[in-house]
Amino acid sequence: xxxxxxxxxxxxxxxxxxxxxxxxxxxxxxxxxxxxxxxxxxxxxxxxxxxxxxxxxxxxxxxxxxxxxxxxxxxxxxxxxxxxxxxxxxxxxxxxxxxxxxxxxxxxxxxxxxxxxxxxxxxxxxxxxxxxxxxxxxxxxxxxxxxxxxxxxxxxxxxxxxxxxxxxxxxxxx
Length: 174
Ligand code: ADP
Description:
Number of strands: 6
CATH architecture: 3-Layer(aba) Sandwich
Distance between the termini: 11 Å
Order of helices and strands: EEHHEEHEHEH
Number of domains: 1
Bound molecules: adenosine-5'-diphosphate
Radius of gyration: 15 Å
Structural class: alpha/beta
Helix content: 25-40%
């Protein structure tokens, strides 16, 4: 299943896929980081649609159109805010990835790009987040998801290195 996962460096708002993931907050009404980049590139209609959704709980996911993005859909998930690691953060982060992929499959999405959910403003340690992200995605694909390709779009070189390291560890543990 690892052969269906790519890791690249870039801006997720510019990525061409059926869907891109927005590391949103619970209001779904915009923010900084990935959220800011996606709303800026998608245009104001995305915010209009988000206003109709009534927010989203941590670890859950909601879908909208992509508007001016290259992607047809945006899937929004608020990841957990890091509070030291004993507040269910790991399980909530895994839930974000799982629920996004479930929603993607329901909508016939074949290609999807994820940012590093929770590791910016929400301060989740990136090495730990990368391991959870990759193992969760691998397990969902292995369980028979109709999603064909998952790309992790890392913004910084440090994030890219963390995701590559976590990926190598998974390859070696096979
Ligand atoms: P969160 O609130 O879930 O922590 P952020 O958007 O603050 O979300 O950050 C999540 C991760 O996304 C961080 O590692 C950050 O460096 C990265 N990031 C920020 N902007 C972009 C972008 N345009 N494309 C991809 N990743 C981005």
